[in-house]
Specification:
Two copies of one chain form a homodimer. By secondary structure, chain A is mostly helical. Helices cover 73% and strands 0% of the residues of chain A. At the A-B interface, helix 6, helix 7, helix 8 and helix 9 of A face helix 6, helix 7, helix 8 and helix 9 of B.
Chain lengths: 202, 202
Amino acid sequence: MATNSPDEKWSTAEEEIMEATYQTLLVNGYAGLSISRIADEFGKSKAALYYHYDSKDDLLVAFLEFAVDRFESMISTETGENPTEDLEHVIEKLLPLQPDEEQRQLQEVLVGLRSQAVTNEAFREQFTRIDERLATTLGKIIQRGIDEGMFRDVDSTRVAEHILATVNGAMYARATTDRHNAPAAARVSLSSYIDSELRPTT
Amino acid sequence: MATNSPDEKWSTAEEEIMEATYQTLLVNGYAGLSISRIADEFGKSKAALYYHYDSKDDLLVAFLEFAVDRFESMISTETGENPTEDLEHVIEKLLPLQPDEEQRQLQEVLVGLRSQAVTNEAFREQFTRIDERLATTLGKIIQRGIDEGMFRDVDSTRVAEHILATVNGAMYARATTDRHNAPAAARVSLSSYIDSELRPTT
């Protein structure tokens, strides 16, 4: 795991810090996060963290990149057979129909982090890259479906942005409202949209 | 304006405080908001504000309700002729294709306020009500289109939730990323979805 190949750009120490950050975020939320708490979870001193990251923000920006790397790595392992199923798979990973407690907490943490992007340039750049990578992942699946004749010849970029916006909006609503049925309703409608928009008319 | 009819539930003083809050939020953002700054903008003492609102959070919760009241009042004035056009009108108001500076700032303010809803119960209740009212507004237009035979007999609730999630997600992305073309791409795709999903097949 400590190699420097493009796919494994995270050192073992960095991976451990990222895992410690993740656990600390789940327990304390974004508001309760501190370098001290991450160091406690990491089982080393604060100095050990500062050796790798200049500041809490620096560490959190790295954490976001780590999370997307993990997500993409998982997606690339679990998809590739059937564009329709792959699309549903990515959507389910981004917006689980029935999220467990950890997924809920992660979504709330991401909303806290993302709100910082309004004023914090480093966070904004990172969320720009995250959305770009997610839109690219979705767009590639759609384009593959078109190339293989399974989807109609739609504008894969636009459809990808539409799916990403719907997923992000529903996730946002789940973390910031008590409208428990709304995300599922949006998901069901999104699936029927994918069916009607992408399926070739026969 | 100081009557107590259901449509005009805000007193003149309350309306002035809400206007002062809005201006202060536009200038200082959510992070820079204080009762002192609102009082300065209002042209009265902090005590005058505390006479109406117990705390900054209390005032901000009222501000959110005021903003939605205003939005609904505007929508009810500007719609009612053609369900397809009405739907596009509401979407354009929620997610302008080319937002001006004030609209951008308002969206950033809303993202800051909404992130508080993850941990603040009063904010969460208010955003629950806001999304509920927006989904109801969208659902009613869709239902009217169905009743008038202009739309297919879709599930108006689900379609409304889908539209709201897409609009909220695109607005969220606009405020937290530099992906300048993404919201417009999602909007264009949303419009073609509305066309394909709602238009009767002839």
